Amino acid sequence: MLKKAFVICSVRKATAEMLEELDRIYEKYTKLGYDVYLPHKRTNQEGSGYAICTENYKAISKANIVIVVYYKESTGTHFDMGMAFALGKEIIVEHALIESGDKHYARMLMEWERLGIE
């Protein structure tokens, strides 16, 4: 059975640099045997916020792993991380900028990954 990976990342605020990073992540995990779900390519971004969150929830719930590319400005990223956390998903942090004094999401991601919560 094909393993599934969901990538939590910025969509609306994604820069060209971020999209290049997502392409690299896609290639990396595809080579490792994962069906990689990139929301900016597979989630219908024309739907309502509720519809987008519901579609992402369904994909996250089917994923074996969740890969996070974290930029604190992305509120959708925060929402998807909460869903993945509630579902007890294994997390791999590909990018999380930790700023001096940061006590919130970026540090929590590192702890979540380190603990190997599944």
Write the layout of secondary structure elements.
Layout: E1 3-8, H1 16-31, E2 34-37, H2 39-42, H3 49-62, E3 65-70, H4 75-86, E4 90-96, H5 105-115
Parallel strand pairs: 1-2, 1-3, 3-4
What does this structure look like?
By secondary structure, the chain is of the alpha/beta class. α4 links the parallel β3 (65-70) and β4. The chain has five helices and four strands; from the N terminus they run βαβααβαβα. The protein has a single domain (3-97), classed as Rossmann fold. It has a four-stranded parallel beta sheet, with helices on both faces. The model has no long low-confidence stretch (mean pLDDT 86). Helix content is 48%, strand content 19%. α3 (49-62) crosses α4.
Q: How would you briefly describe this protein structure?
A:
The protein has 118 residues and is an alpha/beta fold.
Count every beta strand, where a strand is a DSSP E run of 2 or more residues: 4
Q: Percent helix among the residues?
A: 40-55%
How can the largest sheet be summarized? 4 strands, parallel
Order of helices and strands: EHEHHEHEH
Oligomer: single chain
How many domains, in number, for the residues? 1
- Distance from first to last alpha carbon: 19 Å
The CATH class is identified as: Alpha Beta
